[in-house]
């Protein structure tokens, strides 16, 4: 009696990618760091030991101790509680800013690269003009026009990141649209919109994913920089950039007021950049050994 050989079930690409990320040591540590920061941000109203907005003048500029783990600021507010609460603001700003950059930039790049010709020339020249301005300077100019506030900061930082996603997605589309499966889809009568989002975008997604993971750190850093300059969150918001700006004024008397918000920014940006590098190593077959 002959036994029938059974093939193992196929693994979904997303499951395989998640497994590769978990096996990659750098990606695993970066994901765990970002996950812990996200959990702390979500649970901050329940785990913060003090009200982050309550001023206690008698507790002004207390050093780190068992009662105040990270000390207090000039107004006597607990810095640890403010960092936990500020994580909700800072992390969300970076997330929504990257979402704007990915959505708008990739749409522009996909359409420009797929159709080419005069449309591509016009769009790319506009992108070149935008790239002539540093991202932070462009974001500052947009905030100056729109006005200060967290929503305007998200919009400004998101617009500042559009150029990179437009160029990366366009470059991928220029190579992908010449593939045989795209010609086959076109020959079967598929619409351009279906070809772009059903056949071209999934194959152009890997470099976009790498850029998005790296851009999160840049978006967070840009947003905190704008708040540091007074163009973002308004007092008494516990946004990390605003906390860093407040701590700068008492740096010599209470250095912890600036050090701990700076460490929070550093950890988040570093984890984001390391995750981007790890994802690039995972999905790029030329680098994988």
SSE inventory with pairings:
Elements: H1 13-23, H2 25-47, H3 79-115, H4 117-131, H5 135-146, H6 150-160, H7 162-176, H8 180-187, H9 192-228, H10 240-248, H11 256-283
Helix pairs in contact: 2-3, 2-11, 3-4, 3-6, 3-7, 3-9, 4-7, 5-6, 6-9, 7-9, 8-9, 9-10, 9-11, 10-11
Key structural traits:
289 residues, mainly alpha, 71% helix
Structure, explained:
- By secondary structure, this protein is mainly alpha-helical.
- The protein has one domain: MetI-like (MetI-like fold), CATH 1.10.3720.10.
- The chain has 11 helices and no strands.
- The chain has helices at residues 13-23, 25-47, 79-115, 117-131, 135-146, 150-160, 162-176, 180-187, 192-228, 240-248, 256-283.
- Helix 2 packs across helix 11 and helix 3 runs parallel beside helix 7.
- The longest helix has 37 residues, at 79-115.
- The two termini are 43 Å apart.
């Amino acid at each position: 009696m002959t036994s029938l050989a059974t093939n193992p079930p196929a693994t979904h690409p997303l499951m395989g990618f998640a497994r590769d990320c978990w096996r990659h040591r750098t990606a695993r540590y970066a994901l765990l760091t970002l996950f812990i920061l996200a959990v702390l941000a979500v649970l901050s109203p329940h785990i913060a030991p003090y009200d982050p907005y309550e001023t206690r003048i008698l507790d002004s500029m207390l050093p780190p101790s068992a009662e105040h783990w990270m000390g207090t600021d000039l107004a006597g507010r607990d810095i640890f509680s403010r960092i936990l609460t500020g994580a909700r603001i800072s992390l969300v700003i970076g997330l929504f800013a990257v979402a704007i950059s990915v959505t708008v930039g990739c749409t522009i790049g996909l359409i420009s690269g797929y159709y080419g010709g005069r449309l591509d020339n016009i769009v790319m020249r506009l992108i070149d003009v935008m790239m002539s301005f540093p991202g932070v300077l462009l974001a500052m100019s947009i905030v100056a026009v729109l006005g200060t506030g967290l929503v305007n900061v998200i919009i400004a930082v998101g617009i500042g990141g559009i150029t990179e996603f437009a160029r990366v997605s366009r470059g991928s589309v220029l190579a992908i649209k010449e593939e045989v499966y795209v010609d086959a889809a076109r020959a079967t009568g598929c619409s351009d919109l279906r070809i772009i989002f059903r056949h071209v975008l999934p194959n152009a997604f890997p470099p976009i994913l790498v850029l998005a993971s790296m851009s999160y750190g840049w978006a967070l850093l840009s947003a905190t920089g704008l708040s540091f300059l007074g163009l973002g969150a308004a007092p008494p918001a516990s946004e990390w950039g605003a906390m860093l700006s407040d701590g700068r004024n008492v740096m010599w008397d209470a250095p912890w007021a600036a050090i701990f918000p700076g460490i929070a920014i550093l950890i988040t940006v570093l984890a984001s950049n390391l995750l981007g590098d790890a994802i690039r190593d995972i999905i790029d077959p030329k680098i994988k050994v």
